[in-house]
Amino acid sequence: MSETIDIDPIESKLWITLTINGSKGSYFVEQRLTLADFLRKEVGLVGTHLGCEHGSCGACTIIMDDKAVRSCLLLAVQADGASIETVEGLARDGALTPLQEAFRAHHALQCGYCTSGFLLSLVARLREGPIETEAEARESLSGNICRCTGYTGMVSALLSLSNSNGEDGEKP
Amino acid sequence: MTRTSDIGVMDKTRNIGIAMTRREDERLLTGGGRFLDDLPFGDFYEAAILRSNYPHARILAVNTDAAKRLNGVIAVFTANELGPILKDLPPKVVHPKLNYQVRLAIAKEYVRYIGEPIAVVVAENRYIAEDALELIEVDYEPLGSVGSTAEALKVGAPLVHVGSETNVAVHIIQQAGDPEAALKTAPHVLSETFEVTRGGGHSIEGRAVAARFDEVTRQLIVWDNTQAPHYVRQMLATIYEVGEDEIRLIAPADIGGGFGPKAQFYGEEVLIPWIAMEIKHAVKWIEDRWENFVSATMERSQTHRVEVGFDEDGHLLVLKDVFEHDQGAYCVGLQVPTITMSTLPGPYVIPNIHSELIACYTNIVPTSSLRGAGRPQAVVAMERMMDRIAEHLGIEASEVRRRNLIQPDQFPYAVGLTFRDGSPLTYDSGNYPELLDGVLSRIDLKAFRGEQAAARKTGKFLGLGLAMFVEGTGIGPYEGARVRLTNRGRVLVSLAASPQGQGYETVYAQVAADALGCDIGLVEVRHGDTSFIPYGQGTFASRITATVGPAVWEASGELRADIISVAASLLKTDVGGLDLRGDAVEVVGDPEKRVTLADIASIANVGRHGMSVPRDLPVAIERTSYFKPTQAVYSSGISAVIVSVDVETGKIEIIRSILGHDCGNVLNPLLVEGQILGGHAHGIGNAIYEEAKYSRDGQPQAVSYLDYALPTAMEVPTPELFHVISPSPLNPLGVKGSGEGGTIPLPASVANAVEDALRPFGARICELPLTPQRVLAAVYGLPKLES
Amino acid sequence: MKPSRFTYHAPTDLDEVLDLLAKYGDEAKVLAGGQSLIPMLNFRLLAPAHLIDINRVSELRNYLLDDSGLNVGALVRHRELETSPEVELAYPILHEGLTNIAHVQIRNRGTVCGSLAHADSAAELPSIMVALDASMNVRSQSSQRSVRAEEFFRFHLTSDLDSSELLVSVDIPALGTGTVGVFDEITRRKGDFALVGAAVLGTWDSGGKIQDCRIVCSGVAPTPLRLREAEQFVSGTDLSDDVLVGVQQLVMESLEPTEDIHTSAEYRKKVTGVIVRRGLARLTDQRRAIHV
Question: What is the largest CA-CA distance in chain C?
Fold first, then answer.
């Protein structure tokens, strides 16, 4: 057999430095590696899931520089210098956040595969202000797809948060 | 109303029936879920699969040389290198008349649908594996192809299987009474044709398989996010020609949705473990969304030609339904169309029934069970005709239904057909009038008709639609549970079936704790690993509650008896005076006299090495029960929806959705309602949004979520749920399945509601889903959208 | 669904971007928001040898709203513009269009100029830009030009940009007194691309007549489609019910829309008439709002 088709793997890698759930680190990453694959494979934060890899289902939603974004539609190299938040960073002290607690109390998750994407979308949304009506709750859920729950539990969970002293789902 | 106390289970329980939150949730909410691709496999290679670009072609040559030379590629396999496993993947449900066609794990000479595997690349990672796919050259000789049953049945249509005489896979007729005679004499006969199109399961996690041959134990370990681990293991054992114990099949603790497609058996499940053995290195394959669109089984495409005969009062005299079912390129099983056949009569007394199936091969990915599994289509056929009868006679559709319902005193009710499980279609219990009353007590019909009439005058079109169904659940052959007192005095419940979000770890702890009488905190449930329990069937057909539930109940009850026997021996008393409470067995009336589960385990399980024990002392405290249902148990339900239709744009707004559901006793209301709510969303998707479109020759046209519309929180309203409880007499818990009931009636009820809204236009809704295009076509008679 | 290999470039100033475009041209793709580009890379529908990430070019990051209008730089995200109260006040039609684009997670990354350069005929912004008579500021290493929106969109997914050019910003002229506009669309689900969409803009004169009406449709042709006949039909009228019924009829009779898997030409014909009528009716509502 003739020679191996080779593309220099070193040349295709770049150094990036970023903050993930409060910890700063440097990584040597493939240029074409998506941010989602980077978080999952290189950093080991497998709570961020891939559902469609074309930005539609929202399972891979994370927070980058305070904005909820699709990590399947970003390259890891684009996150150089960024601050990233993933589902693993929510319950810092081992206790669930009020949003996570509300999800559990209202059976807002079943298989749980899409859940981290929903949580991150909602954490970003709740930082902008409380969700007070069903319409607001549905709008804030609409960028993510869940096939198990029919969204009812999530809507109830969000409304329960606004009914309990305006907690915003984030630990102070 | 039948009361739960008739069965007696619920009276003495403390956990069953409680809406407990789930044990699974904490890990899933914190990113600690254990989905297959989340497992720390380490240096597993990754596979990617080259799939057919043609709906039908002969493969003249496959050249993998360039792919093999790519740096980072480990190996490339085609059918040529996989001879030993080129064996038939047998269908689940067959029929003696099936025009049987072999399905292989990987295409050899022909490809028969876009997405069929042709080659497997194993590489250091998925990126490189996909690079290599682009370097494989396939020389195809394109052949004629068919993208629908209508195309497949045309005279002179291209044959999906070259050499076969026909595209018909099977033609089956079931009859009760004398339908032909009844059609001739019925005072009124109405007929219509209804089409339901393809839709997918769309679990957000795709399929996934990983495998490693363990050289140390000489065992093949396969991780597979299947709904049916033991079924897959047996398929592999048969194809690889090994004993079942040589394969350990592990369904990971967390599986990202199932809905049916993950209960089927696929070529990839044969290929990946075999390749891992061939290259002597662990391999995993993670299905991506494009692959899921073109290679995971889907469902729903059927065309029904229905005739109903009835009298002046709307009493059903005869039902005749002849339907085409799209089987796809191969027969993965006949369960879906055979379920359709027997779901047709629903909750009604119909003396004469003709149910006729024509299943066809097409050049599309095979169909198989998907949440609802043939029932939504049957309910469309039946329930749409109930509304037509009402329209014809000028009476309320609810009234036509009422006049035909099987009454609560008629159970067990023999319909006269055969169900998918091979047993006679005999409904075990139910209260269909109460379901109907439940809806009518929530909707003031008279007021609604007034509102509807007033709205029409302002150009607003409201409609009410109902649909009722009866659903066979809890089918055989059996399902198992192994319950063990662990050496530390805890209880471990091991299930064969794997969950995909249903909450087994929570609900079966409830069942076990109540059967044992112990503290639920002592009970742990694990599942989905063939090393936990030797036999099992899997999660499908809403069968687990009614099969695993009784198995856990029975095994736990037997375990309790063993534990009490040990305690009686230790406390030197009679078993009759003992009770298991909390973490110990105590003497009734003298709770100071007690022996803990840990002590019991220490004596009966750990024992003293080499020492004899008394003859009557039970040892090795574990019990395994396989519950074997004698037949299906029949859940039932009703959907009522009120819609507003914009007759200028074809957009439908669901204003109210009411769901009544009867699955017998409810083990955990939170989880059962979760199942129904999720099913409801899926049903709305099928009714209005989801459509896997294909061209006439079988090219998939919706292979992304931009083109395939899954409902979001904006499209799914919160339904008003109510329960009717008719416990099943056929199992000790009085339970029936609830996984699909939310989905089944929605396509029919929404279509009925839209047709009701559009009655001033005389619009006929005969095709689903109800896209804006189809609604306007019905209003104005616009031409159909051609493929 | 993993992208093919490419060489990633992360220039930090515009000249560097234009040099790279001049050098790699056809083999390169510009990465701004990436919300359309990366899906195509993941599906391997595109496999550029070079990816030029402009996200670090600070001079492209801003928008400027003043008396003459709004200038939107190539890196301004949908969400940024959508949440600007000043932009909402100055261009309600633009705000309305932005809120209809996909979902907030996409709008957080997606850029206005990226959407325009992507030139999806079923998207919201191209039609709105034509209605607003926006100009595209296009640069290459050797040239600089301004292209009116109406000339910018060439075909579905094809703009007037050549492979060495970058859309550096878009200029939207200020709206005069009495100018009102709306954007409406019919989609399968909230956030989807339009089955049909219409941007409708006009100026109420002191006599209660609508002038200089612009009606531009999404999803019905390979580019945003101006309905000039309909514009003429309604301009100078008071948008009375008769006019609205007439223009709906006119659109339905004259339009020859495209057909695709999402819906038929007949559907688009009929419903475009409806949303044009509804859009124009809302201009009347807005007039009342202005005067109240």
Answer: 62
pLDDT of residue B421: 83
Any chain A CB within 8 A of the CB of B199? Answer: no
Pair type for strands B219-224 and B247-250: parallel
Check C103 against A73: CB less than 8 A apart. no
CB C113 within 8 A of CB C72: yes
Residues in A touching C190 (Cβ below 8 Å): 142
Residues in chain A closer than 8 A to C50 (CB atoms) = none
Going from the C-alpha of B453 to that of each of B391, B405, B448, B449, C39, the distances in angstroms are 16, 29, 9, 6, 48
| Residues in chain A, total | 172
Q: Percentage helix, strand, coil, to 5, in chain B?
A: 30, 25, 40
What strands lie across the sheet with B479-485, from one edge to the other? Answer: B523-527, B491-495, B479-485, B622-627
Contact at CB, C270 and B773, closer than 8 angstroms = no
Tokens of residue B357, six digits: 């199936």
Burial of A1 (0-12, 13-18, 19+ CB in 10 A): exposed
Q: What is the pTM of this model?
A: 0.96
CA distance A13 to A75: 12
Q: From edge to edge, which strands make up the β-sheet containing B110-111?
A: B110-111, B57-63, B137-142
Q: Quote the pLDDT of residue C286.
A: 87
User: Quick one: closest CA in A to C4, which residue?
Assistant: A32
Question: Which chains contact B through at least 3 pairs of Cβ atoms less than 8 Å apart?
Answer: A, C
On whether the CB atoms of residues C170 and C138 are closer than 8 A, the answer is: no
How far off is chain A from B779, nearest CA to CA, in Å?
A: 30
- Interface size between A and C, measured as CB pairs under 8 A: 84
Question: In C134-250, which ranges are E strands?
Answer: 135-139, 144-148, 153-155, 158-159, 166-173, 179-186, 196-204, 210-218, 225-226
Residues in B touching C270 (Cβ below 8 Å): 648, 776, 780, 782
Q: Which residue of C has its CA nearest to A79?
A: C55
pLDDT, position A4? 57
CA nearest B290 in C: which residue? C1
Q: What is the pLDDT of residue B422?
A: 84
Asked if A54 and C42 come within 8 Å (Cβ–Cβ), the reply is yes
CA distance A70 to chain B (A): 15
pLDDT at site B787: 47
Positions of chain B with pLDDT under 50 = 1-8, 787
pLDDT at B188: 98
Which of C1, C5, C267 is facing B773, going by the closest CB pair? C267
Whole-angstrom distance, CA of residue B543 vs CA of residue B559: 24
Question: With bands split at pLDDT 50, 70 and 90, how would you rate the model's confidence at A93?
Answer: confident
pLDDT tens column, B293-346: 999 999 999 999 999 999 999 999 999 999 999 999 999 999 999 999 999 999
Q: Decide the pairing of beta strands A83-85 and B57-63.
A: unpaired
Q: Are B342 and B418 in contact (CB under 8 A)?
A: yes
Contact between chains at B773 and C261 (C-beta distance less than 8 A): no
- pLDDT on residue A172: 31
Q: Identify the pLDDT of residue B786.
A: 55
Distance of residue A163 Cα from the nearest chain B Cα, in angstroms: 19
Instruction: Flag whether pLDDT at A8 surpasses 60.
Output: no
Taking chain C (292 residues) in runs of 10, the rounded mean pLDDT of each run is 96 97 96 98 97 97 97 98 97 97 98 97 97 98 97 96 97 95 96 96 95 97 97 97 97 93 94 97 87 52
**Peptide bond connecting B769 to the previous residue in cis, omega within 30 degrees of 0:** yes
Q: Which of B573, B721, B755, B577 is nearest to B652 (CA)?
A: B755
The sign one gets for the Cα dihedral C272, B756, B709, A123 is: positive
Distance in Å, alpha carbon of C42 to nearest chain B alpha carbon:
10
Neighbouring chains of C at 3+ CB pairs under 8 Å are A, B
